[in-house]
Amino acid sequence: MSLLSLIYVLRYPAILLLSSAFFIQCSSKKVYHEYIIRGNLEHLPAGSIVLETPFSEERETLDSIVVVDGKFEFRIPVARYPESIRVAISHYDTNQVKRSIFFLTGTKGKAGYGGIESSSEFMLEDGIELKGTLKLHIAGEWSSFHSQQIIQVGRQTRVMYDDTAGFQVINNLNTLKNLVRQHPYSYYYLDVLKRRAPRAANAQFYALFNLLNSDVRESSSGRQLKHYFDTRDRHKLTWETSLPDSNGVNQPILSKDAGLTMVVLWASWCGPCRAEIPQLKKIYSEYADREGLHMVTISFDNRKKDWEKALRTEKMPWKQLMITPETLTYAREIFGFDQRVPLTLLVNSEGEIVRSFKGYGEKSAEQFEELIVKHTRKPRGTL
Predict the structure, then answer these.
(1) In CATH terms, are 34-161 and 242-375 the same topology?
(2) How remote is the C-alpha of 312 from its chain's centroid?
(3) Domain ranges of the chain
(4) Are 306 and 299 in contact (CB under 8 A)?
């Protein structure tokens, strides 16, 4: 050390100490570039392990790796998934039979929406470790693996596992706010807010959303969710509302020339929806078009090919349209949709929803006919 340097250290030791502490602290801060998820499970058969999102309507495979002596390791780039999302883990044996892998969460019992004692799901975060001896559980045609050892998780997953209060179902705003204040970093809470969004009031949402950390609010999901609440009041069923037909051509839902427009929301996989089609055909034959009734059916299928197959089978002669992702986002505002089909709307010539019917029953046709007669030119008939 030079004489000048020695003099500086002797004269300004506090400055040097603070500077050193600052650089040591900054350099020791760990920055994660990968989510590392490890497993060491005895009695896990040969095959592969799949990491995927758990919801069938939006399932996405994050990665798949080969099992070696019960051991596996996922390395998921943080750049691909900057948010902590809910994921599930499954095993495919050499015959491509899929089985979920369940593990103990460390939470006892079940209450509300969460508080689950055993699960195959966790939040995507670094440091997840699955260990233990697996046992095969068989229930009819369904089978799964279960570990008797508690999974090692981080704070994102722990919030989900310990949600014994039931963030999904609680309606008391103060209770919800207290939970968010305790875990403002939680992407699990953001995910639940997204699923509660169609039923939540704007004031309730903003009160909870603004308590989350800035990085959660400014995440892609956070920005999209806020945009939904900022704009949803602008989305209503109007003469301009349109959706694509089977050829991909946008068609208006409502008809200004009709005395009444009958809008039926359905899906090919919905049993009651398919069961009511013969009755809808009778209504169409009796009242449609020339008598002032305009009919349109809107599919909520996730896959276009499923919808097109159902159209070929059912041969419905009226207008057939399919929901788009953007319209689905605002389906509650546009149609009053609450995730249940069939849903039937009767819209008058002023563009006003006269009445909506949820589900389908034996007396639905009579109720439809009564309103159709009132708003169209033809007198009551027999369906």
Answers:
(1) no
(2) 29
(3) 34-161, 173-234, 242-375
(4) no
CATH 2.60.40 assigned to domain 34-161? The reply is yes
Q: Which fold has domain 242-375?
A: Glutaredoxin (3.40.30)
- Is 243 within 8 Å of 322 (Cβ atoms)? yes
Element (H, E) at 176: helix 173-182
Measured between alpha carbons, how far is 58 from 73 in angstroms, rounded to an integer? 24
For the record, the structure tokens of 319 come out as 């207008």
Integer Cα distance of 259 and 175 in angstroms: 48
CA 207/CA 173 separation, integer angstroms = 8
CB-count burial class (<10 Å; 0-12, 13-18, 19+) for 271: exposed
127-142 pLDDT per residue, tens: 999 999 999 999 988 9
Cis check: omega of the bond before 13, within 30 degrees of 0: no
Rama region for 69: left / alpha / beta (φ>0; ψ in -120 to 50; rest): left
Window from 49-63, 94-108, 204-218, 275-289 with minimum mean pLDDT:
49-63
Q: What is the pLDDT of residues 41-80, one digit of tens each?
A: 999 999 999 999 987 556 799 999 999 999 999 999 999 9
Q: What share of the chain is helix, strand, coil (3-state, %, to 5)?
A: 35, 30, 35
